[in-house]
Amino acid sequence: MSQIKTPRTIQVGDTIGDLAFGPVTRTMLCLYAGASLDHNPIHIDSDFAKEAGQDDVFAHGMLGMAQFGRLVSNWASIEALQSLSTRFTAIVPVGSKLRFTGKVAARAEAAGKTIVILDLEAFLEGGLKAFSGRAEVVVEA
Of 29, 30, 37, 51, which has the fewest beta carbons less than 10 angstroms from its beta carbon? Predict the structure, then answer.
C-alpha cells in the first residue's frame, strides 16, 4: 500500500501504488449481488449467461469500480475523493485475478488545496485491460 505524499511533493507521473484483486468467485458475485442489490442474472445464473451468448457468468462492472475506490482511498482517503468514473472495457470471468493501478495525470492549486487528477487502469492476468477510470482527489495544502 502506497502512502500519500505531502501535497507539495505530488507530481504528474507519480504512481499511487497498485491493488491485487481476485480470484473472482461465484460466491463473491452472489455476495456482491446481495450487497449492491444488482441481481442481474448475467452475473449469477450460469444458464442465463450461456443463453445470452456468454461462456459463463462474469463480474459486475461496479465491483471493479469499487476496487478503484479502494485503490484511491488507500493512497489518499475516502474523504479526499471528489469524483470517480470508470469505463468497463472487458468482461471479467469467474477465476480472474486483476491488478488495479493509478498515476497522477494532473495537479493544480486552488483555494489552499491541491487538486489531483488520477488516471486509473485495471488489467486481467494476461494483460487485457478490463477497466479504465479517472478520479479527482482534493488534498489540503
Answer: 37
